[in-house]
Design a protein that fits this description.
Length: 237
């Protein structure tokens, strides 16, 4: 589709250049005939572009659902959407893999701890930046590098293998309010015997709704969704 659209654009530019050259040559006698030809070419191009648009519309995916999702959770009044989104992807992946390999029943799942994962991500981000001017987690508006779970990114999971074996069950460290975001009793002991480990082999990114829908259908997996937030500062006297 992209190639077809580019072909249409290039052809249209060629037609405009052709008309411009003819006018400069002063071919007034043949101008009407050439203009009729150009008009027909533009009409043909417009019809071709319409066909391309119809092709795209006919391939749109309007509704699709994946399996192995886990129950929804609530981040409350905290900036931990990235944490919850990442955990949801990991829970679904673990559930799908467990059912496929036979160590989990179809309706079983394990709830992971957002609280513990947020703390592990803070430590991993700081370790990854050690001795460097800019780290993986240096993102405008995110608080992880400042020791807070207020603001983070889903894709960090791909680049920080230190956290792949630090995903703990929710029972180890329940979610709290923001005032107690650094509290996770028993986390250190649980990590010593934690049997859960992930291996992130690839990360695929889409940039519009239709691409995301298609990836959802083709992968059959729960996807993480992230969107930039724009900050506007107003200084009042």
């Amino acid at each position: 589709v992209f190639t077809a659209v580019m072909t249409v654009v290039i052809a249209a530019i060629a037609v405009v250049i052709f008309v411009f050259m003819m006018m400069n040559n002063g071919s007034a006698a043949n101008l009407q005939t050439d203009l009729n030809t150009v008009t027909q070419k533009v009409a043909d191009l417009d019809g071709h572009l319409t066909s391309v648009g119809n092709l795209v519309n006919n391939q749109k995916i309007y509704k699709y659902g994946v399996t192995h999702m886990t129950p929804r959770t609530f981040q409350e009044d905290r900036g931990t959407c990235w944490d919850f989104a990442t955990i949801q992807v990991l829970e679904a992946s673990y559930r799908q893999n467990g059912y496929k390999k036979g160590f989990m029943a179809e309706r079983d799942y394990v709830a992971f701890s957002q609280q513990a994962f947020g703390l592990s991500m803070i430590a991993a981000c700081k370790a990854a930046k050690s001795g460097k001017d800019i780290g993986i987690c240096d993102e405008f508006g995110d608080g992880v590098m400042d020791g807070s779970t207020e603001g983070g990114e889903i894709q960090w999971l791909k680049y920080l293998p230190d956290v792949w074996n630090k995903v703990l069950p929710h029972s180890v460290c329940p979610y709290t309010d923001g005032a107690h975001e650094h509290e996770c009793p028993g986390m250190d002991d649980a990590l010593k015997t934690n049997p859960i480990k992930f291996n992130i082999t690839a990360m695929h990114t889409t940039y519009d709704v239709e691409m995301s829908r298609r990836m959802l259908m083709e992968s059959g997996r729960v996807l993480g969704w992230s969107s930039p937030t724009h900050y506007v500062s107003y200084y009042m006297p």
